[in-house]
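To assess whether the prediction recovers the assembly geometry, we first specified each molecular entity separately, as shown.
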Amino acid sequence: MLRVDDVTKVYRTGLFGSGSQTAVSGVSFDVRPGEVVSLIGESGSGKTTVGRMILRLTTPTAGTISFGGEDVAGYSRRDLRRYYARVQGVFQDPFSSYNPVFKVDRVLGMLRSNYLPGLSDQEWKRTLRSSLEAVSLEPADVLGKYPHQLSGGQLQRLMVARALLLEIEFLVADEIISMLDASTRIDVLNLLGDLKGRGLGILFITHDLSLGNYISDRTLILRRGRVVELGPTPKVFGDPRHSYTRALLSCVPQLHRKWGDEVPVGANDGPPATADANGGLVAVDDDHFVAPDEDAA
Amino acid sequence: MSLAVDNLRVYYRTLRGDVRALDGATFTVADGEIMGVAGESGCGKTTLGKSLIRLDGRMRVVEGSVTLDGIELPIADDRAMDAYRFRSVSIVPQYAMSALNPIRRIGRMISELLSSRGVSYEETLPELRRRLALVGLEDDVLERYPIELSGGMKQRVVMVLSTLMNPSLLVADELTSALDVSTQKAVAEMLVEFRDRGFVKSTIVITHDLSILYQVADTILVMYAGKLVEKGSAAEVTEDPRHPYTKLLIASLPEVGVRFEERRLTGIAGRPPSLLRPPTGCRFRARCPIATEECAEEPPFVELAPGRHAACWKVAA
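The predicted structure of the complete assembly is given in tokenized form:
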């Protein structure tokens, strides 16, 4: 459904753009319908840039991003509107995603006038109710309220509901639960899991490995703009092949296991990835790719 | 006994009345103990940490006392507390990265801070260098401006600076929250290292992240809506939580290995009560699955076993 193909993004920095900073370098992956792919990386790894490029908030320096076989770079304004009716993003801070002086209805209403002008009031109400239901929000609890009257979890679920009004096919979720409390973040995660069941493709961008592990089907580990490891989530977490992935996993604070304890790693006796082919990634298992390990060499 | 807090109540003044952010906290922290304070946003954990160091303008001590090494701290008196700050009590604030003066080189900033306390920078320098080296920072950070350092480096500088006078109590508020996992581990382990080396006697680590506390803390205190909910050793609280809130909170944490397809975790329905007019009785009552009428009366924070406390009618046998 969504293909990111050998995408690179170089930011110009400094006076008159004299310097440059490579944020993303030769990243390729795809997301299928009904699949959650998590994009995991530390700060500065370029994970947010990848999400912004998919949403056409910034353009790649090289490489292509295609959705349903169409290159999104060539989209005209009208094409773009059509694109946004199918692809939406939700971002980290639910409190700054809303205009504080607008009631939330108005935020949703703006979407209606932009994308669904043909809808009758009756149909709109029905759509609204069903998308609120999909994110388990009671309409009476949120409609007619100002953003400050709602909790972070409610606002974030409402952002997802807003995206669902459009019958989107793909969602970019960039750190959407980082600012939520532990007791409510799991509800938003479960919501993503339910949406996946309805055929939605989701790119789940996070720095938190345990959240990525919980929700995603496939995991992509990004380091300094490059893909380090890509594969089915149980394999990447259960049998990490790249030394960086292993190092990250050993640092994750967990209940019931101390940092000093031995990390139970899987078989882990596969051939080391050294050859350079296929965009620098080497297949170590079915659908499991690793970048050549600079640290081990 | 290093720190003893007795029935501490700290409210915030607002136009609509007092917000009861910390409503009766009684606990002790022993010498050499690292106590973790865990809770969600608005539970009063930051208020608790701040009230031991410096109240901000809107905060008011309503009741209670804080005793450190046998001396009662004048926490309500900003001026009088000055004699204790930095030397006996110290804090690594929530946004330690912005605690550094952006237009001063690190060395000069430390020198100014020390001289304001009547301490010679030159005499302290060898020890300062030794400690910077201990946390993996080169000597030349003293010549640098904060903007030249990464988040993790700044956090380490503030940590070294806050503990330079070997305070009896260190409060570290969300020390690792803004850091990447690998840096997070290094900084959190510094807390243990500093305690082991005797740079600080007792430490209070405040965070929303229970799993970090499990790594570094000896004891964990769980707070909810301005009240103490549960306290015990780190192992007891995480392996055998007694209060329904702690149980549900721990059950909602996804760990590496738990997957949506295999085991669906659940959150806690509802949201914490407003602290402007908190409900009577147990404050977790509205969200608690096992609440009954008796919960309309406030449960005391009782000792179940030595060092093991909880505030719930259902667990107090």
